[in-house]
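Tutorial sheet, problem 5. The two components below are modelled jointly, 225 residues in total.
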Amino acid sequence: DGGITQSPKYLFRKEGQNVTLSCEQNLNHDAMYWYRQDPGQGLRLIYYSQIVNDFQKGDIAEGYSVSREKKESFPLTVTSAQKNPTAFYLCASSRQSSYNSPLHFGNGTRLTVT
Amino acid sequence: AQSVSQHNHHVILSEAASLELGCNYSYGGTVNLFWYVQYPGQHLQLLLKYFSGDPLVKGIKGFEAEFIKSKFSFNLRKPSVQWSDTAEYFCAVMGTDKLIFGTGTRLQVFP
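Model answer (structure tokens):
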């Protein structure tokens, strides 16, 4: 079955540590996205990538970094510079970054930083 | 800048009641509109979408939405809800190259 795999499902880190969230897709999608979901704030776009080796900042990119070395993979690093890293992180992909390609979502990673 | 507003944050209904969830967007160009649903413990999935043509679109599980351009709205409706519709619903607009989501509406349906 094709889909998006996010791992791990739960992640715990100490403050000051960088942490990388994995996102892999086998849908052969060109575009990939990272969103952050917080209660009462919906989904906010962190970074997105339309093609390998290229990515753009979303609305809340500060404190995060990404890479897109392979079409299938779009890992997100939450750095120690991110002031409120505890959240639910969702990865998504679409056939292309265009008007009419709906997103397919992974199951998410819940990050807790203490 | 494009944005999406969902006015109802939490809706509680009894089974068989009718549902309408509000969604307003702000974007000057051609828009493509979506409703996504997140059932408890599951990933987000597409409920329905509007690109062009008939402004009344039908989605899965008996849901429909109406695009009213003059009101910048894309409200979600269902004539008779079921307990299994309990979920969080997100309206989204695709503008240039990214999808912008609303804050979501949590729907609870009691039997």
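Marking note: Chain A has a mean pLDDT of 91. Full credit if you identified this.
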